[in-house]
Amino acid sequence: MDINCVIVDSADPDRLAAFWSELLDRPVVSRIGPYVWLERRNGLGVGFQRTDGSKTAKNRLHLDLDSDDPAAEQARVERLGGRRLTEYDPGGFLVMADPEGNEFCIIPKGSVELDDEGRAHYLPADGEAAVST
């Protein structure tokens, strides 16, 4: 087997698809029933499914998005309606949330060094913003 699509449950799939479309530079390509789909790339589809209820707990699965400049991406996510989740700063990862609260990480391109506890070390010590790499 292989991963075909990542599906995100959403109260407002059009709104969430618009956020992720901008963030990933993947246009919305279709709306079918309760689904909104972004352009498929590298064999992977990304879709948003309308569901009842809202997110109430930490994701059990999240995406790691790599970037040449995590600080610039943090600012872009915030301009698009997402936010930083500073409660995760002790782990050393830049953890963000989309407009419906789904968590994802922005990591530097290339390898991220982890210590024996699994913490990353690319955030500045004060945890205020991601460092440019």
Distance between the termini: 35 Å
Give the helices and strands as they follow along the chain.
EHEEEEHEEE
Total count of helical runs of at least 4 residues: 2
**Radius of gyration of CA atoms, rounded to a whole number:** 15 Å
What is the arithmetic mean of pLDDT? Answer: 92
User: Which term fits the overall shape?
Assistant: globular
Percent helix: 10-25%
The CATH topology of the largest domain is given as: 2,3-Dihydroxybiphenyl 1,2-Dioxygenase, domain 1
CATH architecture of the largest domain: Roll
The CATH homologous superfamily of the largest domain corresponds to 2,3-Dihydroxybiphenyl 1,2-Dioxygenase, domain 1
Just give the CATH class of the largest domain: Alpha Beta
Question: What's the short version?
Answer:
The chain is of the alpha/beta class and 133 residues long.
Helix and strand arrangement:
Elements: E1 5-10, H1 13-24, E2 28-32, E3 35-41, E4 44-50, E5 63-67, H2 70-79, E6 83-84, E7 94-97, E8 103-108
Parallel strand pairs: 1-4, 5-8
Antiparallel strand pairs: 2-3, 3-4, 6-7, 7-8
Explain this structure.
With 133 residues, the chain is of the alpha/beta class. It has two domains: 1-51, Signal recognition particle alu RNA binding heterodimer, srp9/1, CATH 3.30.720.120; 62-125, 2,3-Dihydroxybiphenyl 1,2-Dioxygenase, domain 1 (Roll). The chain has two helices and eight strands. The protein has helices spanning 13-24, 70-79, and strands at residues 5-10, 28-32, 35-41, 44-50, 63-67, 83-84, 94-97, 103-108. The chain has a four-stranded mixed β-sheet, with helices on one face. Strands 5-8-7-6 form a four-stranded mixed β-sheet, with helices on one face. Strand 7 (94-97) and strand 8 form a beta hairpin. The mean pLDDT is 92.
